[in-house]
Design goal:
This protein has a single domain, classed as 3-Layer(aba) Sandwich (Rossmann fold), CATH 3.40.50.880. The chain is α/β, with parallel strands linked by helices. The strands form three sheets. Strands 2-1-3-4-11-10-9 form a seven-stranded mixed sheet, with helices on both faces. The chain binds glutamine. Glutamine binds next to α4.
Length: 193
């Protein structure tokens, strides 16, 4: 079996995501071809999408400028799977609380950017995630937190009293970076279950 995955590549940690989805696919008997998305026209070719971390102000500006934003919204509306991590979570949210980020509003959550404070810019936490038997070693880098969620959104994990992973139908979003590890369980949740 083969799948086409698109990794949004206008800015952020692209190569890690490409490696991670190929590895997750292989573990699930799927040969994954990865397209890096920098221009319009590629998203419609993709079975699944990954929206990486990076700088959400820059990513949101570029996806709108390049005409990619509408294509991502169409992908989500068509029920195709999408994994958004960190700045990706901010991008898919309804509201980021920051007018410089024009969100896509495909996941009914509001987020707070850089919610874990300056002194904790980067940390790793053994996270209990619903659907996983063992804690996930979650790497947080200037991570957002999820503030409010709509009725159709399930919180998958919390850290320090704040929601850090959520799912609604075909969309999984995490405040942390599952692509940095040799552990495909979050990709499995998003794409292969
Ligand atoms: N702090 C970044 C933002 O608000 C997100 C950080 C990340 O994606 N690692 O856009």
């Amino acid at each position: 079996m083969s799948l086409t995955a698109g990794v949004l590549a206008v800015q952020g940690d692209v190569s890690e995501h490409a490696t991670a989805i190929k590895r997750a696919g292989q573990a699930n008997g799927q040969d994954v071809t990865v397209h890096e998305i920098r221009t319009a026209g590629i998203v419609p070719e993709c079975d699944l999408l990954l929206l990486p971390g990076g700088e959400s102000t820059a990513i949101s500006r570029l996806v709108h400028r390049e005409g990619i934003a509408e294509e991502i919204i169409d992908h989500a509306d068509a029920g195709k799977p999408l994994l958004a991590t960190c700045a990706g979570l901010i991008l898919v949210s309804r509201d980021s609380g920051d007018e410089r980020v024009q969100t896509l509003d495909i996941l009914d959550v509001t987020v707070e950017r850089n919610a874990f404070g300056r002194q904790k810019e980067s940390f790793e936490a053994p996270l209990s995630v619903s659907g996983l038997n063992e804690p996930f070693p979650a790497v947080f880098i200037r991570a957002p937190a999820i503030d409010a969620v709509g009725d159709d959104v399930e919180i998958l994990a919390e850290w320090d009293g704040q929601a850090v992973a959520a799912r609604a139908d075909n969309i999984v979003a995490t405040a942390f970076h599952p692509e940095l590890l040799d552990d495909s369980r979050i990709h499995d949740l998003a794409f292969f279950e």
